[in-house]
Amino acid sequence: KNSLILKKTVVLVGMMGAGKTAVGKALAAQLGVPFLDSDAEIERAANMTIAEIFERDGEPFFRQKESQVIGRLLDEERGILSTGGGAFMSAENREMISERGVSVWLNADLDLLWNRVKHKDTRPLLRGADPYGTLKRLYETRVPLYARADLNVRSDKTYSVDMMAKKVIEAL
Ligand code: S3P
């Protein structure tokens, strides 16, 4: 099942709402390689949603699981790996990803991210009183770290998911 065309797993990083899951699925389909998703894998293994894990066990526990799952997925097979928005913030995760994968930052601006996430309540980090302020603060602190990814693919509200997948392929 391992892909012959990928030398390394392609790891999509970036903020909530950047399209990591949607673009990852399209990319995997276009290339005919496996699609891997760290958040989905954490939820499957725990049989709980990310929000439930945050609520019951706290964010540090989630981050621990996230590192374990990313390490395991990078070992298991080559494919397209979508990560959660916070995954690339840990130095340990960045190191694992850069050794065993190619990181691609889906780089969307704050307005676009907000437009995509504001109607959903699936994201525990945005459940407080000022979700826009929280997203903005996360965006500002995270951008310098996303910028360390191997590749930077700009997103825009006019780009379709398939176009974004093509842009990633062109960048690889
Ligand atoms: C998080 C993003 C989420 C999920 C968790 C924490 C973050 O993934 O991992 O809620 O820290 O930005 P998405 O980026 O897929 O929303």
Automatic annotation (TrEMBL):
Note on cofactor: Binds 1 Mg(2+) ion per subunit.
Pathway(s): Metabolic intermediate biosynthesis; chorismate biosynthesis; chorismate from D-erythrose 4-phosphate and phosphoenolpyruvate: step 5/7
InterPro entries named among the record's database cross-references: P-loop_NTPase, Shikimate/glucono_kinase, Shikimate_kinase/TSH1, Shikimate_kinase_CS
Coiled coil: none
EC number: 2.7.1.71
Alphabetical list of PROSITE patterns matching this protein: SHIKIMATE_KINASE
Binding site for Mg(2+): T21
Keyword annotations: Amino-acid biosynthesis, Aromatic amino acid biosynthesis, ATP-binding, Cytoplasm, Kinase, Magnesium, Metal-binding, Nucleotide-binding, Transferase
Residues that coordinate or bind substrate: D39, R63, G85, R142
UniProt catalytic activity: shikimate + ATP = 3-phosphoshikimate + ADP + H(+)
Cofactors, names only: Mg(2+)
Subcellular location: Cytoplasm
Positions bound to ATP: G17, A18, G19, K20, T21, A22, R123
Sample GO molecular function, one term: shikimate kinase activity
Cytoplasm recorded as keyword: yes
Family as reported in the entry's similarity comment: Belongs to the shikimate kinase family.
Oligomer and partners: Monomer.
UniProt function note: Catalyzes the specific phosphorylation of the 3-hydroxyl group of shikimic acid using ATP as a cosubstrate.
Name of the protein described by the UniProt record: Shikimate kinase
Organism per entry: Mesobacterium hydrothermale
Taxonomy of the source species: Bacteria, Pseudomonadati, Pseudomonadota, Alphaproteobacteria, Rhodobacterales
This protein's encoding gene: aroK
